[in-house]
C-alpha cells in the first residue's frame, strides 16, 4: 500500500531521489547526511530507501550499519533494497558477527537476488567455516535440509553464487559432492562456475585431487552461449595500447602475435 | 508512378501489366531489395562518417560493449528503399497507400529525431523524452482515428470504420466513437512494441516482415476486386485494400535488403528511426485492413517483448520493488541465462513464424 501511494504521488519524493542520486555520483563520499538518511530510509518510496542504503555504503556511515543489516533482514522491504543492502555489506567489508548472521539468514530470502548477493558476500568476507558451508548447502537444497544432497534451488543465479561461495568456503566432502552435482547442472553457466569452484576447493583439499580431475574431465562442454568478438577491434586496441607506450614498445616480439596468418584463416585466431 | 503506364496499354500492349497488382508487387519486392543492396554500403559509410554510431548501453550487466560504435539510424536505408519502391509501383491515388506512407514518414521522423538527440549527447539515455514520444504517437493515433471515422476522409463506410473485427468470430464489435480511443491506444502499443523488440541483430526486422506478410494476405482477401472472396471467408469487403499488397511487397523487399546488412554481426542498426517506423507501418496496416487484433496474434513476439518490459518496469520495479524477470525485454532475460545472441534471434524468428501461421489460420477459422 505504501509503495502504491508513493507510485501515485511521485512529486513527494522525486526531488529527494534526484538529490540522493547526485550525492551517489559525487566524486567525494558525502558527509553529514545523518538526519537526511534516516528520513530517506523511512520513506514510503522504495527508490529513495534504496538510494539511502547505497549512500550508507558510499559514505561509510558507521552509525547506520545496524540499520543496513535491519534492511537486509526485513522481509517486508522491497527486494531490490534487500539485495542492495547485502551488496553494501560486502562493499563495506563488514566482517562482524551481526553482518555474518544477517547474510546467513539472507540465504533463505524468498527473493532470488538477495540469496545470490548474500552467498557472494559471504564468500568475499569470511573464511571457510562449517556453519557457513551448512547454510550454503541448505540454500542449495531448499527447505529439505538434511535430505539427499540434491540441488533444489530453481534459480540459476543463486546456484552460480552458491558454487562460487562453496569454492571459497567449502570444507567437507558434502560441499565437494554438492559442487560435483552443480557440475552436472542444465545451465552451462552453473557448470562452468562449478568447474572453477571444484578446482578452487581441491586447492585446499589435495586428497580429492584425483577424483576432482576425473569429474572435471567429465563436465559437459556443450554451451548454449558464446561471446563473439571482433578480431579487428582486438588487434586495433592492442596496437593502440602499444603505440601509447611509445616507440620502444613497438617491437617484433610485442606486435608479432597480432599478425594474422593468411593461410591459417582468421577464425582460428584465439584471443 | 509506373502504375500510370497502364494507360498507355493501347500504345504498347505489355504496359497493361502495370495495371495488375501481382506484377507490381513483384516489381516492388525487386526494386526495394535492389535499392537496399545498392544504397546499403553508401548509407552505412555516410552514417559512420557523420558520427551516427550506436552509444554504449548496459542491460543490467549484460555486456554489449562490443557493439558500441556500429552505425545506427539504418532505418533511413529501410525507409529509402521502401519509399522508392512504393512511389514507383503503388497506385498513389489510393487513399490507404497514402495513409500508410504518411505513417512511415511520421514515425520514422520521430525515431530519427530521437536517434539524433542520442548521438548528439553521446548517450542512449538522452534521446527524446518518453512523454514527448508518447505525445507524438498519440497525436498520430488521433489524426488517423479522426481521418478514419469522419465521412469525407474515411476510406470505409460508417459501420465498417467504427467496428472492431474479432479474430475467430464472424461478427465484430461496434465501438462507435470509442473506436477513436482504441486507435490511439493501438498505435502507441504497436509502435512501442516493435521499438522494444529491436535489441539484437535481425531480431525486429524478421518478425516485422512476417507480420506484414500476414497483413498483406488479409489485404488481398478483404480488398480483392471480387468481393465474393472476402464474403466467402465471412469478411466485409474493403475496397482499395488490395493496393496495400503492393506496399507490403515493397516492405518485404526493403526488410530483406536491410537484413542483408543487419544480420549478425550487424554492419548497421535500424535505430529508433527504423523500429518506430516499422511499428507505425504495421499498426497502420492492421488498422487499414481492419485486423487490429490479428496484429497481436501475428506479432506475438512483440506482445511478449512489450509485455515483459511492462511487467518488469511497472509491476515489478515500480510497484513491488523487485525484478519479475531476470532482465527485460525478454530477449535480454534469455541472454542473461546464457543463450547466445544468434540462438535467441533464430528461436524468436521460429516463434514469429508460428505466430504468423496462427494468425493466418484465423482467415478460415471463423
Topology at a glance:
The complex is a heterodimer of chains A (about 270) and B (about 375).
Chain A: H1 2-8, H2 14-25, H3 34-41, H4 46-59, H5 65-73, H6 79-92, H7 97-106, H8 112-125, H9 130-141, H10 156-169, H11 173-182, H12 188-204, H13 209-218, H14 231-244, H15 252-255
Helix pairs in contact in A: 2-4, 3-4, 4-6, 5-6, 5-7, 6-8, 7-8, 8-10, 9-10, 10-11, 10-12, 11-12, 12-13
Chain B: H1 21-49, E1 58-59, E2 62-63, H2 75-89, H3 95-121, H4 130-149, H5 158-161, E3 163-164, E4 173-174, H6 178-197, H7 205-223, H8 227-232, H9 243-262, H10 271-288, H11 292-298, H12 300-320, H13 330-336, H14 341-361
Antiparallel strand pairs in B: 1-2, 3-4
Helix pairs in contact in B: 1-2, 1-9, 2-3, 2-9, 2-10, 3-4, 3-10, 4-6, 6-10, 6-12, 7-9, 7-10, 7-14, 10-11, 11-12, 11-14
How would you describe this protein?
- The complex is a heterodimer of chains A (271) and B (366).
- Chain A has 271 residues and is mostly helical.
- Chain A is built from 15 helices and no strands.
- In chain A, helix 7 runs antiparallel to helix 8.
- Chain B has 366 residues and is mainly alpha-helical.
- Chain B is built from 14 helices and 4 strands.
- In chain B, the strands form 2 sheets. A two-stranded antiparallel sheet of chain B has the order 1-2.
- In chain B, strand 3 and strand 4 form a beta hairpin.
- In chain B, helix 2 runs parallel beside helix 10 and helix 6 packs antiparallel against helix 10.
- The longest helix of chain B is centred in the first third of the chain and has 29 residues.
- Chain B is globular, with a radius of gyration of 20 Å.
- The interface between A and B is medium-sized, with 27 and 19 residues.
